[in-house]
Design brief:
This is Class I SAM-dependent methyltransferase. The chain has 199 residues and is of the alpha/beta class. It is 30% helix and 31% strand. It contains five helices and nine strands. The strands form two sheets. A seven-stranded mixed sheet has the order 5-4-3-6-7-9-8, sandwiched between helices. A two-stranded antiparallel sheet has the order 1-2. Strand 1 and strand 2 form a beta hairpin. The longest helix has 13 residues. The relative contact order is 0.16.
Length: 199
Amino acid sequence: MSHYYSEEQDVESNPSMFTYRYESYSLELKTDSGVFSKGGIDYGSDVLVKAFLKDAGSYPRILDVGCGYGPIGLMVAKVRQESLVDMIDVNARALSLAEENKKNNDIDNTRIYKSDALDSVAGTFDAILTNPPIRAGKDVVSKILDQSYEFLDGGGALFVAIQKKQGMPSAKKRLQQLFGNVEIVTKDKGYYILKSVKG
């Protein structure tokens, strides 16, 4: 059986639409079977978007790792129009939906492409955001955290959404090892937003 972190989906397509809002901004998003959080934006992703958009930092180049059908990257791109947002995922159906959602919401400051973790990423970033695919296993999550460090510019920040019961303590420990710093930016209904800055 395929999972939302599989490249190809064998579940039957059953598309639906929903509206995602942040303050005065809204996105009309198409979603489908075989993608993460089909019914609407995942709570952790929403907490991540809010925490990032409230951050005072200047982030001209942003990477959304595991973008799915696009709620995080597209909302960030819509609010921070001066930034360029790269959005990556391994799931072909999710990427197709993200492209459609980008077009339907008239967002032109994003680039959407396929990448297994950050394997196909080029260039470096001022901020990386991820709500990592916990069900893909600890090795995949660790790979995303490790690679994110490599793809950040000096002074760049990694923002991670993770639940305490799904490995927050070990992710926090790994970030401390990698970056030498980690901060809990937000705590909301069991979700933690961790932030580490590259020295």
